[in-house]
């Protein structure tokens, strides 16, 4: 086995598919292939996987992801119809333009960032993606927020509970929750109003309460469970396409994430979507940035 291989942990019954991210002596650093989980394991506990479809859990995760994207597309089409009907009768014969909320997505995983940006692009969500290590997210945000001026910030990557740490309320029990909390605080210092800047933060097993208390609108994970790579994206898309006069339906957002109520939670928040006339010419507003 080598870096980049797909593996499972034998001691856990092969329940989660990982990719070997790094090698340190007899230990391997693992990143979830479907879930935003960071773990480590001795080589002796790993089994290489050639076909991910041989794992029922991995196959099911991809099915759920496809269903989540399908639902986002349905909501997107519904919003177009609602926007058209909401126009003044004298304006309905004109072609209107949309102003969905702009997303700045910071991700500690380059593969997940690419998948997330594909979804934003598919749904025509104006977005900018940045790949950087979780420990660098706070200073990166401090630099980028004034430049990009987003409506929605996604702060995610990999996380997980450390071995032999049973105090779930202590940030020191988590691999990256403290990094996420520090990034949320930077974003909230930039804009204190939770309706002006919507923050979606966290990954697998993250400290949900600390993230909300730091200023996040949506966060993971209330039940300290694994969340799917696209769950933060789903929350961001719903924020982007909920009209600015309406609150985002939290219960509906949670019910359509892949991990559900134990994976994602949040607070009442106003949406970011607006329409206008006449029609504007389309521009390319999405790009990825890698920060080493």
Structural account:
- With 292 residues, the protein is of the alpha/beta class.
- It folds into 2 domains: 6-54; 61-290, Response regulator (Rossmann fold, 3-Layer(aba) Sandwich), CATH 3.40.50.
- It is 33% helix and 20% strand.
- It is built from 7 helices and 14 strands.
- The chain has helices spanning 56-86, 110-122, 137-148, 177-190, 208-214, 231-241, 250-256; strands spanning 6-9, 18-24, 27-32, 38-42, 46-48, 97-99, 103-107, 127-131, 152-156, 198-201, 218-219, 265-266, 274-276, 287-290.
- It has a 7-stranded mixed β-sheet, with helices on both faces.
- Helix 1 packs parallel to helix 6 and helix 3 (137-148) packs parallel to helix 4.
- The longest helix is centred in the N-terminal third of the chain and has 31 residues, at 56-86.
- The protein is globular and about 65 Å long.
In short:
Helix content is 33%, strand content 20%. The protein has 292 residues and is an alpha/beta fold.
